[in-house]
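[stage:ingest] chain + small molecule (zinc ion)
[stage:ingest] validated
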Amino acid sequence: MKRSHNRSRNKKTGKADKNLDMADFQSATTVHDKKTHSTSGAQQPSLLSSLWSVLFVISSALIGFAAFRNTLTWHLQRFWGASGDFWQALWDRLLDVTGEDPFTFWVYGTTVLTVAVYWIFGGIYTILDVTNKPAVLRRYKVQPGTNEPVDTKRLLQVIGWVLFNQIVVGMPIAYLSYVLMKWRGSPPLRELPTFHWVLVEMAVHILMEEIGFYYSHRVLHSRYLYRFIHKRHHEWTAPIAVTAMYCHPLESIFSNLLPIFLGVFIMGSHVATAWLWFSLAILSTLNAHSGYHLPFFPSPEAHDFHHLKFNQCFGVLGVLDRIHGTDTLFRNTRAYTRHVMMLSLIPPREAFPDESKCSSKQRN
Ligand SMILES: [Zn+2]
Ligand SMILES: [Zn+2]
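[stage:predict] done
[stage:export] tokens:
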């Protein structure tokens, strides 16, 4: 917006210069008059109006955001208030059965929950990939013609490595998380946190994951670490959901598990909040690797593009990619045009087909 405004200002200055050249043929006083007129007439109001418009945009965005946030949290809080007792009662019942040893929750609980979430939802995606049905889903493929159907031998290799990472590698890390949380201190096990506090913590978890994942991932793309560690994850240039945790054990620890745990440690989260966050993070990474850009799902285009091109889109949210300029190539592609949550049933490849390159140029 700012850029277009500058452009129009330059145009105006250009016009004023032209007027000035023509006025050279006229008397000096007329030139002087014209010059002062063009300066005060064109530049001052445009500067003022640009300041006003910037102020207007910022203030209305802030007001809009505050109103939206208040409305949203008010509704959610109402929902939570009504169901909060229900969740607390459920939690109490669980604790009555399991006992209240934090070790059970942080180590066994976390492992069982994360493995279950990963394979229940990853399993659904895998059934679609293996059977190649329902046919309508082919239209939502990010890279059509890939894994249709998926190669069974490759899939079994993935399942084996992922289970290894989740159990053999994951359980000692879960134990480490228990030790760290015991040292750090976390809220009483029996008392669930308030809804607003869960939201605050989630924001921190998401931010910390972005930082932890982006930088560890970029380091993994350095020559030696890529060759010896990260290459395994990149064997899939067109990923499927369950390849999300298909990687070298060291990558699993430093790039997958620790960035997700970082915010939990910093905030000293309740184990229930941590479980909610781990589940969301798993669902998010399964979607990012799924190879399907489904309606009403977050767009998987950026990470899919990373698997296709290797040196673009290292982050989860894309904020750090923008700051570090590691998405410049991506932003010049059709995939970037499709990188939105689809709010209709039209497949992204049909809504934004490859052929219409004109509009792609226009965008950039
Ligand atoms: Zn990946
Ligand atoms: Zn990578």
